[in-house]
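Schema walk-through. Below, the input block comes first and the output block second. Nothing else is stored per chain. Lengths vary across the set, and this one has 113 residues.
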Amino acid sequence: MKVILKILLSAIAVIVLAKVLPGVEVVSLWTAVIVALVLAIFNAILKPLLVILTLPVTIITLGLFLLVINAAIILLADYFVDGFTVSGWLWALIFSVLLSFFQSILHSGLKKE
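--- output ---
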């Protein structure tokens, strides 16, 4: 049940960011839910592989290359989900940073005490 709630909270964050950022568009609530689900799957499966493969670059850049990986995952979600559009790398980078920030705020209330 907590996973479904996290997906819905992430979808709300996607909708809010799409309204705020001019380079990001989401056509409907269902599209935002699908984007949140796709991002969760990519972050669970694809991101650890990319982090391991790019570990030397990540170490040299003191972890800043993880921002590039996050932006690439956002652009990959843009490619796979119809109705979700990101204008370029810069908007994907801004979107990923703000999405991580909003998710940390929204998900903090779900932790066990």
